């Protein structure tokens, strides 16, 4: 059977010596596998948003992609909050506003709806005919900031964008929803945790409301040098964009605002039923939280980071310790009756929007159950889902990300006046994966920014 290699694009911003590590992120954007084309859904800008102060980093209107439901799903709503990292300094927020993650001027005019957004029953058995919405991400703080920087002409209005999008969707019929699911991937997965209870309050008491966080469980972990790279990043985001205004008061009464931006400290403050879908060896966290370039300046981890099969025993043990910390941080949450878990032992990131990982012939499994079925069983109360995989390397169903950095080709190079360069590199994904007709794989593509 022919092996299909999927290109993963990584945009790196190369800065002068002394810069911070890159804060890059994976996401699912363009279909790449052969077969019938996926549903393409146009971008809608929220025309009244500016008058409410709900604008992207550069002041442009926020937007979303909406495909209406039908039949039994006509009054059911699935909201997907887009992911795409964060910006934690003025400098990288200024860069970000020149991309689709900071300005609707650069957003794609249409996006493919695959995975949990697919309109095909064979690809998305429980949610295919729901009203499905993807809310675009252009604030850099997981839809939570509320401030501005006039000197840099930056608007940090994530909370207002969230509110404007919800108002628009309520007007379009969501206020009559019988069923609703708030989901998100990566930074959007964190946003779905933060906004879960607020989402519940927007809908009638009779509406069945639940939330799904995909690859949004970012752990407050120590990196390989003993530092706190992710805590430093989150601290910058929280302080710059005044995120504390929109974090749970019950958490802020106990912990500092940066700690309350970490899911491990948020999940026990969420009353609405919540499902955590996460890879135990989350590829983004391995690359940028556990082993950022700043923590491994000599590149001892380069081979292991690019392909987990090249990790030595001590590196594997470090990764196992990270998995154990993640599971320990979920322990109290997992014991609640309404929570759901699907924690597979994969080197992956974002598994709900990609067709190959959501629901396909060879999707990742835990006890022979694919992700889409587990989430559906949990949402509709068909089964209790507390699926935690055995540790690596026991799971041979994973769709692991492999970064062949040493063999990658530079396909774009661009310099700017402030000694900043942009380099686009292509990484291939795991060669284990094969595909049957009709399955779609979404690439990962997004600017990576950091500040000096």
From TrEMBL:
Keyword presence, Hydrolase: yes
An example molecular function term from Gene Ontology annotations: pectin acetylesterase activity
Residues annotated as signal peptide: 1-19
Pfam families referenced in this protein's UniProt entry, alphabetically: PAE (PF03283)
Presence of keyword Signal: yes
Family that this chain belongs to: Belongs to the pectinacetylesterase family.
InterPro entries referenced in this protein's UniProt entry, alphabetically: PAE/NOTUM (IPR004963)
UniProt keyword terms in alphabetical order: Cell wall, Cell wall biogenesis/degradation, Hydrolase, Secreted, Signal
Organism: Psophocarpus tetragonolobus
GO biological process: cell wall organization
Main location, first listed in the record: secreted
EC number(s) per entry: 3.1.1.-
Localisation per UniProt entry: Secreted, Cell wall
Function: Hydrolyzes acetyl esters in homogalacturonan regions of pectin. In type I primary cell wall, galacturonic acid residues of pectin can be acetylated at the O-2 and O-3 positions. Decreasing the degree of acetylation of pectin gels in vitro alters their physical properties.
GO CC, one annotated term: plant-type cell wall
Protein name: Pectin acetylesterase
């Amino acid at each position: 059977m022919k092996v299909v290699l999927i290109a993963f694009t990584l945009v790196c911003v190369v800065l002068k010596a002394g810069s911070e590590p890159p804060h890059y992120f994976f996401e699912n954007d363009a279909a790449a596998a052969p077969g019938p084309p996926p549903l393409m859904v146009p971008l809608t800008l929220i025309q009244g948003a500016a008058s409410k102060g709900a604008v992207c980093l550069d002041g442009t209107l926020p937007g979303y992609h909406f495909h209406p439901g039908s039949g039994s799903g006509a009054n059911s709503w699935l909201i997907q909050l887009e992911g795409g990292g964060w910006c934690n300094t003025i400098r990288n927020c200024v860069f970000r506003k020149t991309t689709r993650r900071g300005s609707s001027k650069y957003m794609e005019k249409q996006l493919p709806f695959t995975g949990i957004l697919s309109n095909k029953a064979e690809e998305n058995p429980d949610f295919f005919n729901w009203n499905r919405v993807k809310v675009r991400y252009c604030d850099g703080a997981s839809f939570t900031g509320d401030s501005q920087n006039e000197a840099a002409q930056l608007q940090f209005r994530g909370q207002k964008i969230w509110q404007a999008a919800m108002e628009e969707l309520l007007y379009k019929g969501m206020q009559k929803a019988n069923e609703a699911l708030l989901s998100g991937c990566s930074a959007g997965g964190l946003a779905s945790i933060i906004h879960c209870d607020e989402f519940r309050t927007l809908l009638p008491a009779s509406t069945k409301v639940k939330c799904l966080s995909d690859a949004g469980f970012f752990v407050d972990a120590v990196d390989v040098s003993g530092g706190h790279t992710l805590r430093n990043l989150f601290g910058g985001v929280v302080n710059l964009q005044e995120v504390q205004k929109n974090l749970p008061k019950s958490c802020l009464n106990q912990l500092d605002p940066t700690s309350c931006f970490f899911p491990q400290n948020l999940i026990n403050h969420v009353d609405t039923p919540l499902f955590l879908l996460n890879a135990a060896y989350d590829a983004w966290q391995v690359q940028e939280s556990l082993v950022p370039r700043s923590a491994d300046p000599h590149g001892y981890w380069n081979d292991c980071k690019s392909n987990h099969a090249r990790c030595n025993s001590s590196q594997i043990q470090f990764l196992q310790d990270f998995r154990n910390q993640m599971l320990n941080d979920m322990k109290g949450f997992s014991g609640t009756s309404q929570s759901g878990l699907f924690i597979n032992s994969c080197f992956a990131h974002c598994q709900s929007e990609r067709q190959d990982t959501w629901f396909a012939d060879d999707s990742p499994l835990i006890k022979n159950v694919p992700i889409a079925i587990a989430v559906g069983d949990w949402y509709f109360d068909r089964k209790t889902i507390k699926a935690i995989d055995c540790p690596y390397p026991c799971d041979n169903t994973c769709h692991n990300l492999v970064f062949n950095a040493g063999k990658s080709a530079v396909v774009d190079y661009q310099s700017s006046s402030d000694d900043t360069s942009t380099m686009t590199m292509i990484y291939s994904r795991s060669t284990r994966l094969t595909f049957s007709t009709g399955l779609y794989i979404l690439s990962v593509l997004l600017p990576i920014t950091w500040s000096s």
